[in-house]
Amino acid sequence: MSVRTRGHYFSAASDYLIEKAEARQRGGDNLVSPLDMIEAARLTMGGIDLDPMSHPVANELVRASEFWTSKDGDVFDRRWSGRVYLYPPRKSQLCTQALEKLWREHSQGLVTEAVFFCDRFELLRACPWLHDFPLCFPYQKPKILRLTGRQLDPIESYRNDSWGFVSYFPDYQSAAPVVATERFIKAFAPVGRVVQNCIEESDWVKHWRGS
Questions:
Q1: How far apart are CA 196 and CA 43, in angstroms?
Q2: Cross-strand pairs, 137
Q3: HSE-up (13 A, CA, CB side) for residue 54
Q4: What's the pTM value of the predicted model, to 2 decimals?
């Protein structure tokens, strides 16, 4: 079943396809977040201020107050802020770069809260600090959408090993971490199993850097 864009979005969809064709060498694609991920992220944060790696048609679903595309220049040189939703292009290097950018901006207090979705499990190994944050592992294969002309079509033949995960960066500024995490757990409970690391192993950074 297709999720159709309304007629006056056809121009935006066409522009996006051209834009993505030009951006493929930088790791771009024409995939759009699953609807249940977007709704759960909005419920967790109460809204989305910024989607830094998006396009006009996708933002009809995300409904971020501000979104950036590849036409807006290098998003890694810009300041990210507020409540962020991030589903980066699938290229491994770009995913890692986007995640590390999000982590830095959140650590500095610029990004107050964020939900990150990605289908690359290797990030859990490449970025072991992710285990300090709540994670959600979907019960079912995420219904990722692909933009094809006038409509968004579910990808039926998605690889079984690419179910992905969701990471939550809590709001430490206006809510206690426990309260913020409870919002995430409640919103994502229908999506997947939410887990949080409660054991702090102080030497992991030393072992990681030496591996």
A1: 19
A2: 193
A3: 23
A4: 0.78
Residues 6+ apart with CB under 8 A from 93: 27
Q: In this structure, are residues 102 and 84 in contact, taking their beta carbons and an 8 Å threshold? A: yes
Q: What is the pLDDT of residues 108-149, one digit of tens each?
A: 999 999 999 988 888 888 888 888 899 999 988 777 777 666
In sequence order, what DSSP letters do the residues of 25-89 get, joined into one string? GGT---EE--HHHHHHHHHHHSS-SEESS--HHHHHHH--SEE--GGG--GGGSPP-EEEEE---
Helix (H) or strand (E) holding 209: helix 204-209
Identify whether the C-beta of residue 102 lies closer than 8 Å to the C-beta of residue 114: yes
